[in-house]
C-alpha cells in the first residue's frame, strides 16, 4: 500500500481554493475510482490520465487506485486536476519521491499524448499559490498570464515527462521569464474623432472625473456610440491592483491575458437581446457576466429601451454595490462588478421626437420601458442633437481637445476626490454627500425648487449634488457654486423630455 499527496487548486468565482489530491494504491482487482464530488469532466480524467501516463513511458499500476479530491464538499469541474492526479499516481507507485511535492502546486489538463493543455483561471491560481509561498507548475500557454503575479516562481511545462524530470532533478525546467514589457494603456480611438457635440464631450469629461453613469439621448447618426467608446480613453490609468482584478475575471472565463496590454480598461458592448444571465452572470457552474467582465471599465448599453425591462432591473443592485452574488443549489459565487455604465437611446421609437411619425402616447410608452429606479441610478442624462447643416463644415474643422488633454484634467479632479474622501464622487454615501457637498442656504433653496419642478427623487437629488461636486473639482473649486449646480441640473435631459411629454 502507498499514499501520495499533491497540491492543486479549484476555480470558484475569482477564488482558487486549495485542493488536496490524495492518491492511494492498494492490492486487489485493477480499478480507478475518483471521489470528492467531481463533475463529469473531472471523472473523465481517469481515461485521460491513464493514456497520458502510458504514452509518456510510465508504468500504469495494475492496482486499485483511489483518488480523493479534498475537501469533499466542494464541487470540482474541468480538466485542471489531470496533471496533479498523474503526478500523484507516479509518486504513489514509488516512481517519484513524495517529499519533493510539498512545495509545489500543479494545475493542467492532459492530452492523451501527455501534452499539458491550458486551463482557465491561471491568474487566480498563481495569486493563491504566491500567497501560500509555493512554486507553481502550470501549462506553458498559461505561464505568461501567471507571470503578472510578482515574486512567484513559475514553471511552464508542455509535457508530463518534462514535469517528472523536473521534480526528479534530472532535467530541471527554467523559471518563466517575462519577455514582454508592460506598457501604458494605448487606445486607437481619440476624443477628437467626434465631430462637434461639445456639450456631450463636456458631460463625458464630468463622467470620467467622478466615475458617474451616463445616458446619451439623441437621433441616429449623432455620434452616441462614438462618444461612449471614447470614455475609456480619458479615464485615469488602472493601478496594478485594479488591472489584476480585471485580468482575473477574464482569466476565469478563458480569455487570454496579454502582459503587454493588460492595463487597458475593458469596454463591453453587449447586444440588446442579451439575457439577464448574460449580463450579471450565472449558470449551473457560476460564471461572470458582462458587468463583471467590465470591472474597472465601461459597460455600454446601446438602444437602451430595446433591452428587456427585467434585464435592466437586475443591474440596479450591482450598480449600487459594485458586486454581484450568484447562488445556486450547490454553489455560490461572488464576482466584482465595479463598472461605469454608459447607455444610449433614441428619443422615440422612430428615431426622432419631431419627425411626425410618433404620437406623444407612443413615445411615452417607448420611454417607459426603462423603469424609474433604473433611471435614478444614472447621474448624467445628455442630449446629443443633430449638427446644423450650415455649421457642419465648420464643426469638422474644430474637433476640440484630444483625449490626452482631457485626461490630464480628469486625473487632477480624481486626485482631489481621493485626497478628500478616499473615493470618487459617484461612490459617496448619503452621509458623505452631506459632508463633502455642502451648499449655502441660497443654493440649497435653488436646488430644492429645481428638484421639485422636475419631480426628482431623493436619490436623484443626491446624484445631482455628486455631479456638481465633480464639476467643481474640474474647476478646482473647494465649494460648490450656483453655476456648478445649474450645469449639473442641465444634464437631466431625459427627465425634462418626460415632463414635456406629460404636459402635452
Can you walk through the features of this model?
With about 500 residues, the chain is an alpha/beta fold. It has two domains: about 170 residues, Ribosomal Protein S5, domain 2 (2-Layer Sandwich), CATH 3.30.230.10; about 325 residues, P-loop containing nucleotide triphosphate hydrolases (Rossmann fold, 3-Layer(aba) Sandwich). Helices cover about 40% and strands about 15% of the residues. It is built from 23 helices and 18 strands. Strand 6 and strand 7 form a beta hairpin. The protein is elongated and about 85 Å long. The model has no long low-confidence stretch (mean pLDDT about 90).
Task: Tell me the distance between the termini.
Answer: 87 Å
Helix content: 40-55%
The strand line-up of the biggest sheet is: 11-14-17-10-18
Which CATH class of the largest domain is shown? Alpha Beta
Number of helices: 23
CATH topology-level name of the largest domain: Rossmann fold
Give the name of the CATH architecture of the largest domain: 3-Layer(aba) Sandwich
Number of strands: 18
Largest sheet: 5 strands, parallel
Mean pLDDT: 88
Query: Structural class of the secondary elements?
Result: alpha/beta
Amino acid at each position: 500500500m502507498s499514499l501520495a499527496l499533491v497540491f492543486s487548486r479549484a476555480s470558484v468565482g475569482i477564488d482558487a481554493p486549495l485542493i488536496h489530491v490524495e492518491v492511494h494504491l492498494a492490492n486487489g482487482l485493477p480499478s480507478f475510482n475518483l471521489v470528492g464530488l467531481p463533475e463529469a469532466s473531472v471523472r473523465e480524467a481517469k481515461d485521460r490520465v491513464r493514456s497520458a501516463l502510458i504514452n509518456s513511458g510510465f508504468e500504469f499500476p495494475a492496482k486499485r487506485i483511489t483518488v480523493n479530491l479534498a475537501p469533499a464538499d466542494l464541487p470540482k469541474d474541468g480538466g485542471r486536476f489531470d496533471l496533479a492526479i498523474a503526478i500523484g499516481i507516479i509518486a504513489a507507485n514509488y516512481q517519484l519521491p513524495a517529499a519533493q511535492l510539498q512545495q509545489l502546486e500543479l494545475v493542467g489538463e492532459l492530452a492523451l499524448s501527455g501534452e499539458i493543455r491550458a486551463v482557465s483561471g491561471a491568474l487566480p491560481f498563481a495569486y493563491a499559490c504566491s500567497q501560500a509561498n509555493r512554486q507553481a507548475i502550470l501549462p506553458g500557454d498559461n505561464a505568461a498570464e501567471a507571470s503578472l503575479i510578482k515574486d512567484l516562481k513559475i514553471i511552464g511545462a508542455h509535457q508530463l515527462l518534462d514535469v517528472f524530470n523536473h521534480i526528479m532533478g534530472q532535467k530541471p525546467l527554467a523559471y518563466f521569464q517575462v519577455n514582454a514589457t508592460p506598457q501604458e494603456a494605448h487606445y486607437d480611438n481619440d476624443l477628437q474623432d467626434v465631430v462637434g457635440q461639445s456639450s456631450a464631450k463636456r458631460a463625458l469629461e464630468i463622467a470620467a472625473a467622478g466615475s458617474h453613469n451616463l445616458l446619451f439621448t439623441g437621433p441616429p447618426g449623432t455620434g452616441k456610440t462614438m462618444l461612449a467608446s471614447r470614455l475609456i480613453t480619458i479615464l485615469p490609468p488602472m493601478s496594478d491592483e485594479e488591472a489584476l482584478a480585471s485580468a482575473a475575471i477574464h482569466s476565469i472565463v478563458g480569455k487570454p491575458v496579454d502582459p503587454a496590454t493588460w492595463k487597458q480598461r475593458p469596454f463591453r458592448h453587449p447586444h440588446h437581446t442579451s439575457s439577464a444571465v448574460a449580463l450579471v452572470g450565472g449558470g449551473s457552474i457560476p460564471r461572470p457576466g458582462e458587468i463583471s467582465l467590465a470591472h474597472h471599465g465601461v459597460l455600454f448599453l446601446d438602444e437602451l429601451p430595446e433591452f428587456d425591462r427585467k434585464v435592466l432591473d437586475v443591474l440596479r443592485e450591482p450598480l449600487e454595490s459594485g458586486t454581484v452574488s450568484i447562488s445556486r443549489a450547490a454553489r455560490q459565487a461572488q464576482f466584482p462588478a465595479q463598472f461605469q455604465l454608459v447607455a444610449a437611446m433614441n428619443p422615440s421609437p422612430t428615431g426622432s421626437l419631431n419627425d411626425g411619425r410618433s404620437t406623444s402616447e407612443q413615445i411615452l410608452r417607448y420611454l417607459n420601458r426603462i423603469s424609474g429606479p433604473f433611471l435614478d441610478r444614472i447621474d448624467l442624462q445628455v442630449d446629443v442633437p443633430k449638427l446644423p447643416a450650415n455649421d457642419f463644415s465648420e464643426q469638422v474643422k474644430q474637433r476640440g481637445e484630444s483625449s490626452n488633454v482631457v485626461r490630464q484634467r480628469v486625473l487632477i479632479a480624481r486626485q482631489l476626490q481621493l485626497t478628500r474622501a478616499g473615493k470618487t464622487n459617484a461612490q459617496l454615501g448619503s452621509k458623505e454627500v452631506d459632508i463633502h457637498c455642502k451648499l449655502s442656504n441660497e443654493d440649497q433653496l435653488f436646488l430644492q425648487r429645481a428638484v421639485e419642478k422636475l419631480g426628482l427623487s431623493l436619490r436623484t437629488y443626491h446624484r445631482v449634488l455628486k455631479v456638481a461636486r465633480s464639476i467643481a473639482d474640474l474647476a478646482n473649486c473647494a465649494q460648490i457654486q450656483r453655476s456648478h449646480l445649474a450645469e449639473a441640473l442641465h444634464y437631466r435631459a431625459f427627465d425634462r423630455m418626460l415632463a414635456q411629454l406629460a404636459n402635452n
